[in-house]
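dude i think i finally got it to work??
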Amino acid sequence: MGSIESHIKKVTNNKDISNEIRHTIEDYVYLKTDEVPERVHSIMNRNDFDAFINDLSKCRQDERESYKRLLILYIHNNYEYRENNTYNIIRFYYLDDSVKNGFLYYIFENKENIIGIHFFIDFLKCYNLIFKDLVKIDNKIKNSFNRFIEEIKNKTDDEIIDEYKDYQIYCPLYILSQLIIHTKDKNLAFKLLSIISKIENNENIIIRNILCSLFLIIDVSEEIKNKFLEILSNNKGSSALFMKDINVFYKSEYFIRYIIDINYTTSDNKYNNVTLTYTFINELLEILQKIFYLFKSNSQSIKLELIESLYNDDKDNFYNMYKLYQESVLLDYNNSNPQLKYNNMHFVDNCIDIYLLMSAFLFNKKENEIIDHNIVDRAVDFLCNFLDPLPECYDDYNDYKYLIHNIFEYHTYMLALLYDYNDKAKNFIKSTLYSYITINSFISARNYLYDKTVFNIVKEIFTLNDKVNIIDIYLTYYIYTNAIYSADNKKKTLLNIYNVIEIGNNYLEDIDKFINDDKFIKNISKDINFTIHFLNTLYNKESKIENYKLVLKLLETSKSKEIKKTCIKILEKSESKVKDDLIQKLDKAKGEFETSLKSIIRIWDMSRFNESFEFKNIEEINSHVDKYYNEGYEEKINKYSFIEKEISNVLLKDKKTLVPLKVMKYIFTEYIALKEINKLIDIEKIINHFDMEYFRNALSNIYNEFVNLKYPIELKNIYILYCLYMDDEAVLKLKNEVAYLTNNARGALAAHIVQCMALNGNKLVLVMLDSISLKYKNNQVKNAAKTALENVSSILGISRDELIDKIIPNFDFDSKGQKTLSYGGEAQRTFTISINNDFSLSIKDNQNDKTIKSLPAPNTKDDKDTASKAKKELTELKKSIKNTVENQIIRLKKVLLNGRKWSYKGFKEVFVDNPLMNIFAQKLIWGIYDDNNKLIESFRYTEDGSFNTVHDEEYIFKDELKDKKNITLIHPIELDNDILLKWKNQLSDYDIAQPIEQLNMIYELPEEKDINKNLEIVYHDNKVNPYALMKFAASLDMKRGEVLDAGTFFEYSLKDEIAKIMFVIHFNYLMVGYVQEEDVDIERAVFYKLDEDNNFDFNCPSNPLELNKRFVSSMCGLVKEL
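look at this
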């Protein structure tokens, strides 16, 4: 959690902010003054704001007022994020109402300044659209709001125009529009028209505001509609601005809805006679949609696709549209009022972008005669003026922190597209080609225009500007793929891990120069995130770089733990390339650097210890200990004399020979020195030679002394050894100690114990930890249990799915699926609870030998407390079984997709021995596969415990197949139609209903024609119900994409580490906390191949036809089924 001080730094993160203003802001936040500081522009991104909101929700009561003030500053200081942030304040319902109302009151009381009006209008958009139920607005706010509305209603037209000058006029106009929508009051409509008729300011931005206000109520009366069309007709440039700014309604799809209402009848789809300014809007609905999506999309490539589609579908309409945007270039945006000038430029720039996109497209189509070069020059001048700060930025490797608005990227991309057609554009691109924005834009533009490879474009960049070097390419790649950018921006570059490594491998000499430059190393290490990203890219397994000076230097000199950890991981994987250099460094290394190098060498050597390795005798163990013994660790245990006393009495398996004291010290010092909980393989092999009774006795005595000393924290890793080598009963009892420590303000140590317990790997221990992770009252311990379960699979050397297999509960049912509940007391009444075939429960009254619907009320011969506990247990049992079944259905659906396999033994443990999972096993069709993943035989597990084939014959597993992981769910794509039909008939004959769609699932492999050049499966006119889409995502536990403006998100993803595939489905939008009425447009699906570390590159999609057919056909079929 960030501190108040850290957030003050963020809201003042700009080198141009004076110390005086900084002090004023500090005084305001720390409650030394109530005066709100003047607005400043701080350099931060949306992630900063999200982190602040998270901290705000968790801050202490005594910090609450300071955080309220920080909230004002965060939004007040960042104009470009204000709409999203206003929305977020209202959306974050977990904030208490006092925080929300403190912010909202600020909005209402600061309408006199332009930013206050922005907030006020943004709030109205949110409040009137969908969010009014998410915040309880107090009476103070309501009264302020109502006073303001009454003022607008009661003031004369002249008073309103005089008070709300220039851009501020939008505030009363918008208020009146909202009132008219809700009241249908025609008098207010006349008042609105009257005000509009008296406004003399013809600034384009003012006209645009008037159009927006009228557009909201265009269906209220003929007068409103006619006024709207009149203004639209008489202000061509402003109409372009209005069309651009359809997002003013927060739900920009309203634009299409209203236009359709005006221009089309709903009964027979014939056109009305109403004619707008530009007749092409009336001619074809598809054209209208393309105009809308041109503005809505943040992707230049999608805009270009839409432009190309528009051109190919109807050239006449394309030319009309081109002329419309040409009008926007001719607007006069140089108003003397700074705010109006800013807004004019802000609203016109997007129109100019589209105009230049279309111009570049026409240049590329050799249609030069349509293009007015003077207007293109004017548009380029506009963009160059807007981009004027760019050459002054990004002079060194750390200046990228001055993140820029998307507007810079769009404009630079336009100029890059015009590089070969306009001298001004060419000069600008060449002069700024050292900035990552221009590098990325130039790569994208050249690839689009000439279909050049990234590698060849980078070679061209190096020839055009000698300031650009290979490190700039790595930096550009980092900027567009690092977490500081949103998920949407991560897809705005053609640079990916593969082509960046290809480029690096062709410029090894240049990279060597930087690696050997101490000044460069010192410079990049200032930024931790970039350094880590740079190291991981530079030393990727596909890289040909063999110079590790940079890694060793950073390991020695960096103060960052994260950088050091990254260096160690890289060196651990590079033994053959770096071993000689590392050993040479070790001779002169001291302190922490020496320890790190020794640790790396030890890890290299430990990698040779596999499951089959064993020390042959005590002499080999002594030799091993002599080699790796770290005398510096001895001080960690020397002051606790009881440790040496106890470990001196441990015997080898022969029960005669004492284990050498140095060996025992080695075991304890290595574990005590661990900084992260882990299992040391070499020590495991050493302990295999011990008599476990003696060893456990020593452990138990040391543990008891540790407890008597009130848990000295430097010995806390005693718990690792204890949990690994004591019996299961002793480990399970540690739950009581966790409770004791939690209740005595030792939560951190309790959390440590929980993580150590996970190392035990015993099913009962893991089930207990799973229970702690779900139900424990102390969050620190609860979260530690969650983390332990996440990490323990790698520590135990099993997959995460295998770990989950271990903790599927059986709820104490026996092998027949039965358990007994007792009422105690004199009667000792008992009831047998049985799991039915549909996962419901049946109850048998054993005393009366009959089935009953529910447990009866206790009588006088029952023990009331025991009976109450039995009834409560049954209620909880029903809930738990329901949750477990739902979770297992999701898991089995994923198995159907990815083909995860079990061994014969593993299958029996999970699906046969567990009575709940046994029901799943009987209802599904399984297959056994050879080493090449080819199906050997399909079978069904039967109630009598046998395996039957499709011909209802018993299948006997061969002994040589039993030890292999070769059993999984059959996928229908693997069966011919005859076998598939026979299986369906067999299930029907036995009256078996499958718990998941297996044999009847819809699957479909895509065809070449469905896949575009970006390897995306494109869907045309595929509309689905939003509830169906959300249900589909939930059924596979898919992850929601990043939440952007107005709470919208645009994708779901499924990462499958078994199939090694990432699946992403893109759609036009869904919203958090609200389900829209209209259908969702499914746009495209993308598959990515995961690497060995289960990572992937957003910019490197995979051809779905080259991936796992089971997975791809399933996902495509599921999408089709929507």
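The longest strand covers residues 1061-1071.
im so relieved honestly
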